[in-house]
Every structure is written in structure tokens, then in C-alpha cells.
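Q: My labmate handed me this sequence with no annotations at all. I'd like to see what the chain might look like in three dimensions before we decide whether it's worth expressing. Could you predict it?
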Amino acid sequence: MKLNGLIYNLPSELRNLIVLFVIVLSTGYFVGVMFIDHTSSLNPEGIQENYLGNEVTEPMDVFKFKKSTYQMFNLIHTHVISMAIIFFIIGLLLLITDLNKYLKLFLIIEPFLSIIITFAGIYYLWTGILWMKYVIFISSLLMTLVYFASASIVLYQCVFVKK
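A: Here is what I predict for the chain of 163 residues:
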């Protein structure tokens, strides 16, 4: 079965369902990004402060404590599972788009690598390896850019059907 470009042959009802799903999923994803901005200011120093606390810095807007073992394992566990599901579904949708096979392969595989790198980095940062904040910043930024690109491609090809 040829998957490349199959999205154009789907019934309009199914394409409409995919559009609604991707819009709602993207809303949730970007609310998550806004939450990260609120907790870490979307920069490496803010990432470190979010997980390790800021008890010794002056002046402080918000007093933060180092996350507990329970908080860390709960955060990593829930995010890795939920993000794997998100990118699995987006990957399935990308499979049926009309796209260069190497670009498609990159967009499907990269988020899974970034999930592992980001959350392993968060764990290692929490244990005291401070340079991991840069790894986390870069891998999570790349993951978000890939999500945005993938969702945009799926939406575009669902809405603008090739004749």
C-alpha cells in the first residue's frame, strides 16, 4: 500500500476530523509551552531554577524549591508517555502526507529522540549536572519546532486537497 499522499484521497469527513484533532492537540501543546514559559522563562537559567530551586538567589520574584524525587519521577513518567502518544499519532498522520521521504523520516523520528534527550536531561540536571540545562533547552526547542512543522503540514494537506 502506498502511503505517501494518501491524505489527499481520504474522505472529507475523515480529513475534517483530522483537522479538528490537530487543532485541539496543538492548542494543548502550545498551552504547555506557555506554562513552560511561565515557570522557566524559556531560557536555560530558568530551566535550572525550575528544577533545582532558587533559595540562594537574590532578588527573587518567586521563591522556588528543588523538586522532590516524587515530583521528578511523576513529571518524567507522565510527560514521556503522553508525548510519545502525541508524536506517535502525529507521525501516523505524517506517514500519509505527500512529503519528501527523508524530511518525513526526520519529522517522525526526531521528536522521539528529543523526548528521551529532554527528559533524561531534566533528570540529570536535577541530580546536579548543570550543563544539561543547555541540552534540555536545545532538544525541547527542536521538538517544539518539529511539532509545529508537522502539525502545519498535516493541516495544510488536509485543507488544501491536491486535485
